[in-house]
Amino acid sequence: MKKTMAIAFAAVSIGCLAGTPKNGAGRSSGVSMEIVLPEKPNVSERLAADELKHHFSKATGSRFAIVTENAPKSGLRRFYIGRAAVCGGVDVAALKPEERVVKGVGRDVFIAGGDRHADGGAMPGNTGGRVCFGTLYAAYDFLENEMGVRWIWPGELGEVVPRRAIPVIDGVERRGREPLVLRKFGGEPDTDKVPSGGRMLGWADVENARRDVERRRTWLARHRLGARRKFNGSHAFTDWWSRYGKEHPEFFNLLPNGRREPLQGDDTGKNVTLCVSQPALWRQIVANWSKSGAVRPQPYYVPCVNVCENDTPGMCTCAACRSWDAPDPLFAENDYWNGSGRCPLTKKGRFRLLADVQWGETGGTKVLLSLPSVSDRYAKFYNAVLAEARKKVKDAVVYGYAYANYLAAPKQTKVSDGVIISFVPRMYFPYTQAESDYFRKHWTGWRNAGAAQMIYRPNYMLAGANMPINTARRIASDIAFAAGNGMMAISQDSLTGIWSAQAIQNYVVTRLMRDPKLGYEKALDEFASAFRPAEKEMKDYCAFLEDVGKGLSVEDWQELGQRNKDPRGNAGGGFKNFVLVAADLYSEAWYDRAESLLGRVRAKAAKSGASGAIAVKRVDFMLKGLKDARLTYRTRVAQKAWQADSGSGAKKKAFEKAFETMRRYRASVEGDGVASYFWTAARERDGAGWPHRH
């Protein structure tokens, strides 16, 4: 068992992870109920018992014993966990991975699920498909549906556990399974990367960073992030230029200069793209795949060839690739494609002339909004590699992106049944209705082109830095649309860990990954219930956050970015430098209003006395994130004033003072779980030139 995850779950309870009681050992007077495990419980079963005990104790104030099934019966009410539930008529062995069962017989309850490889060291929360935790998910099912438990953010303060008795559910038999086969956030931190001592960027105390990771993973497990199927997909060819560039230049893009090579500035070839019409390339891809472990089927894995292009729009101008493109007059209007020789394309500006993406890949110049699509060539490429792969493995599949200048649906080409499309929408911030419409049009277009297996892979969670934003309403609507139109998995980039300032957005998006058709309003109701009796006031605050960026067009956003360039000359507002636009998006008056709205939530909760005390603490937590954001805003305001008058020593000192005030405040609240400050500091240092130090 990984030490880090054991610590994470031990932080909320004691018992199973430290060793399962046997033969009734550990029972004591005053115990009101027993939680029964099999003789040799797996990790999923142990954690299920641990989580039930923890939440039952908070809900009732009573004591609960964890025993094994061979312990003498005490006459107490029992919850049977995992394989111990067979005595209640649950055919545990027949359960599919991640399937769950909650069954009531008399006073007793039987909680079990489809666990796979859960006797090893892997722990829940963003798992990769091999290991499944159905029994743990069944425990969470009971806690949510029978006890009204919610988890609105990581840590104990985010645990919403109503005071109540544990209900008898005689006659209930509820079964379920997560509707998406994979539910994942990118950017998941690893405690192995958190140093055991010393310093870590953004953190005053590295142990607070470690605890942040542990709380996050527990929270993700509670929201059932994980998978029952493994996919082999990411930028697949980042080392191919170094491996094959000299011997097989025909594998790679032909640039307008007549050479097959990476762009200027791409010294390693990491961002070179492929000559996707080249048959020798398809054969090499499949030959490499057939020699790897990726060719072997597993119960959780269909042999999958990863053909996801590098992080660059499709660039090959050779006659064969161009013949695969659907006719489009925009090719003749674009200096990269029309042979004019006027193309200034470099690695830094590779997205600018070729693709309309909006999360900060545009270099220092505005994106051109009318650009030709090369989706047909990539659809043909995916089909061609699939045909080669199925000469080796008849049930092989291919995993490819719909991305950049091959995001729009192909116009002429049908996608073979074995092609998995990971759809990366261009939307980011502001998340407008027009962007939602564009997403739906082309998601539907790929489906109509034959893509039967679709993965949703958005980047909108990268927006916002540590600022208060809430685009979750439109996110929820589009997730529900995708779920109703063939989405089988979701992989979002990224969970940045702004737990306080972006609490509502984090909750809604995470909640929808296991219930994608729930909708924004129901998720908002759940979140606001944590602030009872001030639910309405909290909803007012969340609605206020929705107005950030409202009314901005994509063109407005690009103009804002041009006024706030980073030290490298890139437009501000991208995922690496969002903080640069904070001084234009927000104001002191805005923060005053936000603080006033949260103050109303706090005041109403405080009037209800002891019953509202926990709501008051939660509002105070959100106020800490709001203050952190305001201090960040002030730092950017001071920086802009200094940049406008770079020779002013007084303005330089004002910026340094604002930065130091912000840094000291973060150090004072980091132990409260306000934010994951490594992410924030790294973006401020690299994207805005702020003087963070390890």
What does this structure look like?
The chain has 694 residues and is an alpha/beta fold. It has three domains: 3-227, Chitobiase/beta-hexosaminidase domain 2-like (Chitobiase, domain 2, 2-Layer Sandwich); 240-457, no CATH class; 545-688, no CATH class. The protein is built from 20 helices and 17 strands. It has helices at residues 3-10, 43-60, 134-147, 206-222, 240-244, 279-290, 319-324, 330-333, 375-389, 433-448, 472-483, 503-512, 520-528, 535-546, 554-562, 582-585, 588-607, 613-644, 649-669, 677-688, and strands at residues 31-37, 63-68, 77-81, 100-105, 108-113, 115-116, 132-133, 150-151, 159-160, 173-176, 182-185, 226-227, 304-306, 397-402, 419-423, 453-456, 487-492. The strands form four sheets. The chain has a seven-stranded mixed β-sheet. Strands 2-1-3-5-4-10 form a six-stranded mixed β-sheet. Strands 6-7 form a two-stranded antiparallel sheet. The chain is globular.
